[in-house]
Amino acid sequence: MTNSKLSRRTFLKTSLAATAVIASPAIVRAQSFPSRPIKLICPWSTGGTTDVVVRAIADSASKVLGGTVIVENKPGAGGILGAAELANAKPDGYTLAQLPISIFRIPHTQKVTFDPLKDLTYVACLTGYTFGMVVRSDSPIKNIPDLVAYARENPEKFTYGSPGTMTTPHLVAELFSRKAGVKMTHVPFKGVAEGLQALLGGHVMGHSDSTGWAPFVDQGRARLLATYGSKRTKRWPDAPTLLELGYQTMSDSPFGIGAPKGMDPALTRKLQDAFKKTLEDPAVLAILERYDQPVIYLDTEGYTKFAHDTFKAEKETLTTLGLTKVS
Q1: Which of 176, 174, 220, 227 is closest to 200 using CA atoms?
Q2: Dihedral angle over CA of 230, 101, 46, 56, nearest 10
Q3: Residues ≥6 apart with Cβ < 8 Å to 262
Q4: 121: phi then psi, degrees, rounded to nearest 5
Q5: Tens-place pLDDT, residues 122-158
Q6: 57 phi, psi to nearest 5 deg
Q7: Could you read off the pLDDT of 206-249 as tens digits, one per residue?
Q8: 201 by DSSP, 3-state: which?
Q9: In 3D, which of 146, 158, 119, 127 has the Cα closest to residue 287?
């Protein structure tokens, strides 16, 4: 074979490869993304813990991506409205949502409009919550033993709020009440802000939620009875966990960012890397520190595995409690 034929063949191969790269829609989209604002759904009320954290992450991601990430609040339904919208959105990266652990739980208890294992792309897991039960500072209930004693003497009289039915704060409180052998009355709200207003206004006796109650505890307007994690928090070291009090009830509840199914892998990777970068931002880390939320990073592959494992584990737990829906 002559050198001229070799050169011609090499030229043709190089030209075809270059044309393929240039023509690849996936690469072009990933490189030009974002060309317009990105909507990030926060399925909780404005002003609550998750809203504050998500907005800090959105601001940081805007800088990393060189675009604008706009937070849109859609509270209610136990935090699943973001996932529900993703199921019907285009997989172009312009619609994202915060994914709480309730999206793996509620589909086992009621009919929903999405399948958490088929309709979503798990971009990255970022952090987790600290949950706890608070009462007003003037409440006669000083600690968990007081709460248990009151609830035993007054069945269903202890009313407590949460950010919604079947959210983690609700389910943990119900598990606790079963372990303690008492009956409490649950009052669901759309988020921590609404629930705390009810607590401070005297409409409920307690509130089970993430650390949106932190400023009120620090100001002396609310009393933290216990937290729900596997160990005490750094910020409130005097508050015991339900686990150490002997109730075998705990929850460390990671959450992350999701997108619609069918996302281009190159685009998913770009978003994954951008959100990972937000966890190095001092402004984001300061917000996480404020609410005692640890960094819990999982990439797309790890987060997807977590989703499958958690969906299975939630079904097993709810089946044991007799809370799964009837087929």
Answers
A1: 220
A2: 70
A3: 91, 121
A4: -110, 125
A5: 999 999 989 999 999 999 999 999 999 999 999 999 9
A6: -65, -40
A7: 999 999 899 999 999 999 999 998 889 989 999 999 999 999 88
A8: coil
A9: 127
Q: Is 4 exposed, middle or buried (0-12, 13-18, 19+ CB in 10 A)?
A: exposed
Count of other CB atoms within 10 angstroms of residue 190: 19
**Beta-bridge partners for 120:** 260
Give the global pTM.
0.79
Provide mean pLDDT across the span 285-294. 92
Q: What pLDDT digit, counting tens, does each position of 56-111 carry?
A: 999 999 999 999 999 999 998 989 999 999 999 999 999 999 999 999 999 999 99
CA distances from 196 to 6, 218, 251, 303 (A): 76, 14, 21, 32
Rg value, the chain, Cα: 23
Q: Which of 268, 302, 304 is nearest to 117 (CA)?
A: 304
Structure-token pair, residue 268: 């998913």
Amino acid identity for residue 94 in this structure: Y
